[in-house]
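Second opinion, please. Pick holes in both lines of this record:
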Amino acid sequence: MGKIIGGESLSEAEEPLSPAARLFQTRRFNCYIIAIIGCKIVINSNVIKAGLEHTLIKHPRFSSLMVTNKSGGGMRWTPTKVNLEDHVITPNVDPNMGSPDQFIENYISNVTKTTLDDCKPLWDIHILNLKTSEAESTAIFRFHHSIGDGMSIMSLVLAGTRKTSDPTALPTIPIQKRKRSSNSNNSNSVFEGFGINAIGIWWVPRLVKLLSYLWFILQVICNTLVDILMFIATAAFLRDTKNPLKGAPKTQLNPKWFVHKTVSLDDIKLVKNAMHMTINDVILGVTEAGLSRYLNRRYGDGDGEEDAAKQKRNNLPRKLRLRAALIFNIRPSMAIEALADMMERKSKTKWGNYISFVLLPITIALRDDPLDYVRNAKAIVDRKKRSLEAKCTFLTAKIIVKLLGAKVAAAISHRVVSNTTMSFSNMVGPADEISFYGHPMAYLAPSVYGHPHALTVHFQSYMNMMTISLGVDIEAVPDPHQLCNDLAESLKLIKDAAIKTGIAKESV
């Protein structure tokens, strides 16, 4: 891919493609990021174009072509003049059609069958003024993954929005604060509890702290070594168990189907606070529970029983290895304010794909206590936090691209991902209602396609809602809405279990 130009000298504004951008330009990893935005009013395409002209296209990646030198200088980003008419697509649709939700899903699936023209900047937006069950209109953003990672691109899109309550204010993105360990602060009181005067033997708390630190380092080293060996084994021979969610070879070339379902973020927070965990722990537990329900039903198909009977009986195989490629953002996400300022002043900032992934085991089982799904998820997440797997895979991929080329790196990455079952990610969204160039947003459902997975699960928070967004190969997951329902029902069962056991109180 990429437009070829002559061997003339390149302007200072041109930049070479990063190793990750070159990786996403290969045939094996020709990935796209898609963001489905539901609006509460009919979208005015002229207003959207005016807004994009003053925000998004001021970013160099959204106003540059990907070109290749005939002299062999490699691929570079070259600035160009953007014609918004080529990027903002507003098809004529019948507002009175019978199944608008189905039409939107079909339209997005058809979009995944097409590619972006590399003679233009690699993005577009489709505007569908069609009332659905959730919104009055829908906008579909599509970006090629070589432009940047999903976190950066979505942050950039959000930097062009404003609070509905204050059209001059940028969205507020909640930031998770790290809790400081209280061990050092309370070390003296611990020893005093055993009748030991820590003032007289001042070195005891410091020794305990040192030993704890050394134990933590040992855990990180051991976990990292094990994870790297598992990663190498996966690239070489270790495959997930064949299961209904695992796509066929070349599944990345098949059209994708995108569905989503909105659940209460307050319900997730209720479980989080009751069990003293994080939101990530809860949504991973919900994912394990939902996938277990769905797969139990799929494995029970064909036995002639009713659906309710299938769900009660355990149809799952005893040994089922199922792993997800968990997407990690290597660097801290860029502040919305910094991105907005960058677009306004046309200033330069660090940009590119700074993502990696780790192999996350997903436990598929039917449990008597729904809270066990969350407990198991927390144990897995805590274990991964004590590992440098994400940074190691990122650096390794970067080195391979530089030394052996993007095709070799893509072949290795493709094999690793193909030997796992699904992709999993989540992103924190605005805490307040925002407007997309003056159009109040009802929901935001991002996803990705073009990678060798038949199932991608993404959780996106917005206001007091959490959107479960699924991207599926319909040949592997023929009933994605059922899977969405199973995930939502699993959250309800986990919340009800937390209330029933008395560790949480239902909000009135």
Summary: DSSP finds 14 helices and 17 strands in the chain. The CA atoms of residues 161 and 359 lie 34 Å apart. Residues 203-236 form the longest helix (34 residues). The mean pLDDT is 85.
